[in-house]
Design goal:
2 copies of one chain form a homodimer.
Chain A (H helix, E strand, L loop, with lengths): L18 H8 L6 E2 L12 H20 L8 H10 L12 E4 L2 H12 L5 E5 L4 H9 L3 E5 L1 E2 L2 E2 L1 H11 L3 E4 L13 H14 L2 E5 L24 E6 L11 E4 L2 H15 L4 H12 L3 H22 L8 E2 L7 E5 L6 H10 L2 E2 L1 E2 L12 E5 L5 H14 L1
Parallel strand pairs in A: 1-13, 3-4, 3-7, 7-8, 8-9
Antiparallel strand pairs in A: 2-10, 5-6, 9-10, 11-12, 12-15, 14-15
Helix pairs in contact in A: 2-9, 3-9, 4-5, 4-8, 6-7, 10-12
Chain lengths: ~400, ~400
């Protein structure tokens, strides 16, 4: 019998893959200036230190690293992460921490633990593409929450909770992907309160937190959690190296146990060698100086991009992030960033049209620009080119 | 509001975790002889070679290894795996191969791509615990297939297909976990035929294939696939190191694409460093000599375990595997291996009661013995002790 797509699960049938990963195919064109991805700069990837730590880990604990490990994670890393998240105001213990293959996996396992098809999730609008795809695969009903320059609006969230009875809220509080916007302190408290008041899981996805180039750091929403409704998800992809696939979920022990059970049959445990490397990075005090170093370079790149808007018509608005990897821009209402995208790619500049980040599509005038993966001079050239095309 | 387990997804509510992982807690007792796990021997884990290959990979391709990679996997590894599976009679191309975090992830992503709650999966009875848990999490209806000393019985499978209209069959054809039984050549052909005739996905889980200590290797079921209904799942956990979490799925391009989409939001891609290490292991011709070396030691351990049955009453039957990690034993009908397990643990010997490997429980007289993780003299001591307790 010929193989047929009829065999696919209902939720998977309409899902055709990440729009960004399609755009990546266009980027192979020589001479392309890409503001499209979300990759760390190649300079931010410290191969030498990773190689040294890999040797140290294998020479001191090689047999344990190569053997089956606990699904709950590499014990020293759980300790290190408990220390690491103190800077986000989170007081926790290794028993509440699960190392995972990137924060995407934290969210995937959380969805697996909690979501039945048809359950509602409230999400910032726009939001991270990968999260939209993950929620769709689990058959969630995604309800959009409005944002302004201080992030998601708690009053609107409360109204949506009352109306839609969601099981979960998905929030990227710091230097949000795609907008670069940061949730204010008052709103962080308010969102934690809503989660605990109404019994809604708040998935706090916070991979950009430490990429701050100006302004003061804010405590995580999780730091205001009272009854264990906030799940904190962090990642070392942007801080050390995405290829290592190490992140973590922090959740109350009852919920974490269910997430662990999902992980047992999903992939048994997180790769031990890369867990051990991240542990040593933190434990030996190498991580914070490394972050300071890469933040200096990223600040110059962000500044170059913000400066580059001088080449844009004045009716193009944009966010002014204090960190992260992205700037969000809007053409005047009625203009079409998909059409701009096609002309831009022909002229060797790429970005991601903003419509892809909306659960309900639309918003054709918006687009996302990444600055971390291009040197300052290339950013200037690219912004000039792009401005000329608008 | 106090956190409540009511929030969990329906499928997850009854799932309390792997029975084996609970048993592991008992094994911490000093002096315990464990036939319970499925771990490779510590001697089989070649730390030095892994460390050398890690350095080579990082020094030659460090920036690519640390950056985001393709969900489809590390390109050189896809090529190496295409070569590797030729020894199983599988002619494929890198485009049909997806490196994953162990063969457990291959199965999890396959389930995600295909299974709606209530769909039927036919599985050997008994079968791998982790697979039972994965199928339950996706809400599958598991229907047991009978086996004999040549593996699953195709006539019974055909009858079950006609009766239950399954979407999938799950088969471990070589040195099956838990029984150690190998599916005969004729039956491999017959199972491939059934999958293609009726349009049922056959998930062929084959992580033990190369751990053969006697007899001739058999081609994979996948080698007899005609229309792309067989998905081959392999793993380097038992051949190189489980802590690296590298395995692969091989499937027709349409199905593989859907599996890739599931992986995009599950964990973006497989850890690149360990993919690169496995690639170099294969590419430099180190894998086959390594397997020959570890097989020699495992053969002695298997022989010691089989010999140890001389200490058991004659009415205890057992399989005589030609490879793998496990021997399967049965007490006389009516006897209870759960009760034996308790007495055995008190006396510092552990195994896994067989009932856990049955989708429908029962079969209380059966139990699984692992030989790979104990030296020959310990195996003899343990078998003598266990025999005395029966």
């Amino acid at each position: 019998m010929e193989f047929t797509q009829d065999i696919f699960a209902e939720q998977m049938k309409p899902i055709t893959g990440s729009a960004i990963r399609q755009i990546f195919h266009l980027l192979a064109k020589p001479g392309m200036i890409s503001f499209a991805g979300g990759n760390p700069s190649a300079d931010a990837l410290d191969v030498e230190t990773v190689a040294e730590l890999a040797q140290e880990a294998l020479s001191t604990k090689g047999k344990a690293i190569l053997q089956y490990g606990a699904t709950e994670g590499w014990a020293p890393l759980r300790e290190s992460i408990a220390e690491f998240v103190k800077t986000a105001g989170i007081e926790t213990s290794p028993a509440e921490i699960l190392p995972v293959h990137g924060s995407s996996q934290a969210f995937d396992l959380l969805l697996k633990a909690v979501i039945n098809p048809g359950d509602t999730i409230l999400a910032e609008s726009p939001t991270f593409l990968g999260a939209l795809q993950a929620m769709r695969i689990y058959g969630a009903n995604i309800v959009s929450l409005p944002m302004d320059e201080n992030g998601v609006i708690p009053e609107a969230a409360e109204e949506a909770i009352k109306k839609h009875h969601p099981k979960m809220m998905y929030i990227i509080p710091t230097f949000q992907n795609p907008t670069g916007v940061t949730l204010s302190l008052e709103r962080r408290k308010a969102m934690a309160e809503l989660a605990n008041k109404y019994g809604v899981i708040l998935a706090e996805d916070d991979p950009y937190r430490d990429l701050r180039y100006s302004g003061d750091p804010l405590p995580a929403i999780k730091s205001f959690d009272t009854d264990g409704w906030v799940v904190y998800m962090t990642s070392f992809s942007k801080l050390i190296a995405p290829g290592m696939r190490v992140g973590a979920a922090i959740a109350n022990p009852t919920l974490l146990r269910k997430i662990v059970i999902g992980k047992q049959s999903a992939d048994t445990h997180t790769t031990a060698l890369t867990q051990a490397i991240v542990d040593l990075y933190i434990r030996k005090g190498l991580l914070m100086p490394h972050i300071e170093r890469i933040n200096k370079a990223y600040k110059r790149q962000l500044d170059a991009m913000l400066d580059g808007f001088k080449y844009f018509p004045e009716n193009v608005t944009h966010t002014v992030p204090q960190g992260g990897l992205f700037v969000w821009a809007s053409l005047p209402e009625g203009a079409n960033a998909l059409e701009l995208f096609e002309r831009a790619v022909e002229n060797n500049v790429a970005f991601v049209p903003g419509t892809h980040f909306y659960a309900d599509g639309g918003n054709l005038n918006t687009f996302r620009l990444n600055f971390s993966n291009s040197p300052v001079d290339v950013i200037e050239t690219g912004m000039k080119k792009l401005g000329g095309l608008i």
